[in-house]
Amino acid sequence: MTDTRTLEAPGATLTYDVHGPLPAADGQPPLVMVGQPMDASGFGTLASLFPDRTVVTYDPRGLGRSVRSDGRTDHDPEQQAEDLHGVITALGAGPVDVFASSGGAVTALALVAAHPGDVRTLVAHEPPLLAMLPDAEQAFAAEREIQAAYRKQGFGAGMAGFMALTSWQGAFTDAFAIPEPAQFGLPTEDDGARDNPLLSGASNAVTAYRPDIEALTAAPTRVVIAAGTESRGTLTWRTSVAVAEALGQEVTVFPSHHGGFLGGEHGYAGEPEAFATTLREVLTAR
């Protein structure tokens, strides 16, 4: 049973899906799954692997079915945290458990800092917090180079750069360069679009966000920073390690890669069954 709902927020109409009953039949809190820039469609496989939990999936503002009316195109973690707070409040079943991926993990960290009573356990998987890296200046320079290539040459060049950025091993150096799109089977022709949230600069506030470590440490929420074993040494593994260390913990290692929970969604399948098993173990290890 899936119940699709909407919530009016300042400057946006938010759409979310409730998979299962509220309140949950077994008394467990809802398990909220959030990504960014991925919308709820990416969590279909993972949600199906929690048939015993009421799962809530969500489209952040400006993505998927959540339509903006504020005239903005940027993705602001603190604004998105307020949106997510509104959704959790509307559920009337908090505090909830949260699994958050990528930019969604940044949103969830901002949520716990601002509204610590909303979340019982947060599993923040590979938050791309470039500002936390010791080589942040070089990482941001690489990000700017990719965005410049996208503005000048379009999707193929921009995505080739993004793939090089996210697969780079260790600290960034002057050796970082944008490869030819053909190396990744990407298009070389420019389709004219400049609105990709990963390449346009719309998500710069996500990568530049610095979590409030003091607030996160003081919160009653159990915060678990996680990363996929196949991501070792890459950008989001390193950002996960940096945040975990700031919180006085070690990274919790999950199976697979950055999108390890994906099944057939988005053509980037991971190991969703093994991923769900690990997530279940982490959530129940309170």
Characterise this structure.
The model has no long low-confidence stretch (mean pLDDT 95). It is globular, with a radius of gyration of 18 Å. Helix 2 crosses helix 3 (103-114). The protein is built from 9 helices and 9 strands. The chain is of the alpha/beta class and 286 residues long. Strands 1, 2, 3, 4, 5, 6, 7, 8 and 9 form a 9-stranded mixed β-sheet that branches.
Number-wise, the strands total 9
The secondary structure category is alpha/beta
Q: Beta fraction of the residues?
A: 15-25%
Q: State mean pLDDT (0 to 100 scale).
A: 95
Helix content: 25-40%
Uncertain runs are none
Sum up the overall morphology in one term. globular
Q: Kindly, what is the distance between the CA atoms of the first and last residues, rounded to a whole number of angstroms? A: 28 Å
- Note the main sheet: 9 strands, mixed
Helix-strand sequence: EEEHEEHEHEHHHHEHEH
Secondary-structure topology with pairs:
Layout: E1 2-9, E2 12-19, E3 31-34, H1 44-48, E4 55-59, E5 67-68, H2 77-91, E6 96-101, H3 103-114, E7 119-125, H4 136-153, H5 155-167, H6 204-208, H7 213-218, E8 222-228, H8 235-246, E9 252-254, H9 272-284
Helix pairs in contact: 2-3, 4-5
